[in-house]
Specification:
Chain lengths: 324, 305
């Protein structure tokens, strides 16, 4: 390969070639994973603890116990000095950082391990609870927020009427309404859905109003010279015109809704994936905790990819525009 | 200005052309502009964009509006379309005052304003459906107009799949489908390359000759104005006022070979004088580059001459 055809990885504002692009995308996941592997599997990197494999003469050491490096050395020196049996152990990381393979195993075992108590739920049941809460919170918020946002973005009247108050309300942190939501709505799903609603709704109206305002005014003028009046302008020009951008906003907002999920699920009786995470942390099953957190990430990313795939099919006229 | 060849006066017309203008002025008035004025409030005070414009467009006439930049051409046509309100004066369409935009004044914009989410056919159907025509009727009508601009093959394409010239042809078809009394065109070919532009001019002439439509066309291209127009309304800047109304002496129907005819050149010379008047005094110096020689003495090419 001559130097002129070699890939320039850092060309300003230029797309990489498809193969290079794929490579970088894969690296985006591989690099953090590699770092994690290094810390987990290379014994002299970090590993501040020692896992006891043979207590030797140290009375309070037990097999499988995790002790600090320094303590282990001190006890070893002591045993050496006293000419007693030496403790043995291998360097290891704190319990809160499980190795990749342990987390991978947990992906499977977390689903197959029955709950400790009969009243508790399986992981898949907890997940399903979470998804329901997200869905209803987001759905109800969108049901009101999307029309309100479009109307506020289209008519100055509604913009002045809604936006100042919403602007104020969105600074009130949604979790602050937790106690109130429980008092009004009980302890089950309803208050959690309410928190997600509060967290999403106010941002949603403002974001969508702004998106609506970005519609090319020339399209509205053209429509007016073609005889479109108020209703026609709103439903035949504004709505279809902003739909692709609105869809993209919704994808971003759905991501925010997941952030509120964790807070929402701690309200009333703890439930869903958050309950699972706190419960597993209590049992010190940090591999399960990691697995559960990653499941949230995987669900989020997968939904987003599916939605983006649908978007391309729903709005075929956007395909060129977004690429350019 | 020194001209290398002697041109006739732009006012000279041969018999046929003069006769045609006589008859043209007998036609009913489609659009009448009376004492039109427009002022804008800016932080630096009131700016008069247009002042006391009086003009009549006759039925099936092709009028071009031309003027130096900043003369308010765009404001003028936007007021005619109803997209802006005049500060004074009024606009009569077939004798009736108009307020606000309406389908009786079709408009083709400089930028591409096709609805990107609609196919070519649906774009053309837009106005018809807004007017309350049934879907089947609108579709059939739209097909006819698309056929007229020669884009039948593309009726199911989206605007982003079309070239600039094709987009403007759809825009014309979309405006004509409403059967407006007058077609307003705001520098519609400004963004097109020279070749496409001259093709589009020929298409437009053909459409205009065959359809019952009056056209008011804004441009800053002198050749375009002379080639297309029956009459040219020349505006001057600061404030925008009518400077002259030129009856183009180039005989109709027009063809590209007339671009070098004496009448054409005479008209162009007149427009040049009106729009780029010889500058006087200080202004010349203030608008010149401050040039010093920046070629090294031992350069291979010492002079461009």
């Amino acid at each position: 390969m001559s130097s002129s055809s070699a890939t320039n990885w850092f060309a300003v504002w230029k797309d990489l070639r498809p193969r290079s692009r794929l490579f970088v995308t894969v690296m985006s996941f591989m690099l953090p994973l590699l770092l994690w592997c290094l810390i987990s599997y290379v014994p002299w990197l970090w590993h501040p603890k020692v896992e006891i494999s043979e207590p030797g003469s140290v009375a309070y050491f037990k097999q499988g116990m995790l002790v600090d490096d320094e303590l282990f050395e001190k006890e070893t020196l002591k045993a050496e000095a006293a000419n007693k049996a030496l403790p043995e152990g291998i360097p290891s990381n704190p319990i809160y950082l499980p190795a990749p393979h342990e987390v991978v195993e947990s992906f499977y075992t977390a689903f197959t391990t029955p709950p400790k108590r009969r009243t508790e739920k399986w992981l898949h049941e907890s997940l399903w609870d979470s998804i329901q809460v997200i869905f209803w919170g987001f759905f109800l918020s969108s049901l009101v927020g999307v029309p309100l946002g479009i109307v506020a973005g289209t008519y100055d009247f509604f913009s002045r009427l809604f936006e100042p108050f919403i602007e104020f309300f969105r600074y009130l942190p949604a979790p602050a309404f937790g106690a109130l939501a429980v008092a009004i709505l009980g302890i089950h799903h309803a208050p959690k859905i309410a928190i997600i609603f509060i967290g999403t709704f106010f941002q949603q109206v403002l974001v969508i109003a702004n998106t609506t305002r970005k519609l090319d005014p020339a399209l509205l003028e053209a429509a007016q010279t073609l005889g479109a009046k108020n209703r026609g302008l709103l439903f035949k020009v504004v709505v279809p015109g902003v739909l692709p951008d609105l869809y993209r906003d919704m994808r971003i907002l759905l991501g925010w809704a997941w952030t509120y999920l964790i807070v929402a699920e701690l309200i009333g009786t703890s439930s869903g994936i958050t309950w699972f995470i706190t419960q597993q942390a209590r049992y010190k099953n940090f591999d399960n905790v990691f697995a559960a957190i990653m499941i949230i990430g995987i669900i989020g990313l997968t939904t987003d990819l599916i939605l983006s795939w649908f978007g391309k099919r729903l709005f075929p006229w956007q395909r060129k525009a977004t690429k350019a | 200005m020194n001209h290398l060849i002697d041109l006739p006066s732009y006012l000279d017309k041969d018999e046929a052309v003069r006769d045609r203008f006589e008859r043209l002025k007998q036609r009913p008035v489609t659009l009448e502009i009376k004492n039109l004025g427009k002022e804008f409030e800016t932080p630096n005070g009131t700016v008069t964009a247009l002042q006391d414009i009086n003009f009549k467009v006759h039925k099936r006439e092709f009028v071009c509006v031309i003027g130096p930049s900043g003369c308010g051409k765009s404001t003028f046509i936007r007021i005619l379309a109803g997209l802006e309100t005049p500060t004074s004066g009024e606009i009569l369409l077939d004798g009736n005052a108009v307020h606000g935009p309406g389908p009786d004044r079709g408009m083709v914009f400089q930028g591409y304003t096709l609805f990107p989410w609609l196919t070519v056919k649906k774009n053309v159907m837009f106005g018809l459906e807004q007017a309350g025509h049934g879907k089947a009727v609108a579709e059939e009508d739209a097909r006819q107009w698309i056929d007229l601009v020669g884009l039948s093959k593309f009726e199911n394409s989206y605007p982003h799949e079309l070239s600039g010239g094709m987009k403007q042809r759809v825009a014309i078809a979309r405006a004509l489908a409403n059967q407006p009394r007058i077609l307003l065109m705001d520098e519609p070919y400004g963004a097109l390359d020279a070749q496409t532009r001259s093709k589009m001019q020929s298409y437009l002439m053909e459409i205009w000759q065959n359809i019952d439509i009056t056209i008011l066309f804004i441009t800053h291209d002198l050749d375009e104005a002379i080639y297309l127009a029956d009459r040219i309304l020349v505006l001057k800047a600061h404030p925008g006022e009518v400077q002259e109304v030129i009856e183009v002496s180039v005989p109709q129907p027009r063809s590209p070979d007339q671009l070098l005819s004496p009448e054409f050149l005479a008209t162009k010379k007149r427009l040049e004088e009106l729009i780029h008047p010889p500058e006087e005094g200080e202004e010349i110096n203030s608008d010149h580059l401050n040039m010093v020689r920046m070629v090294s003495v031992d350069s291979d090419v010492e002079s461009v001459f």
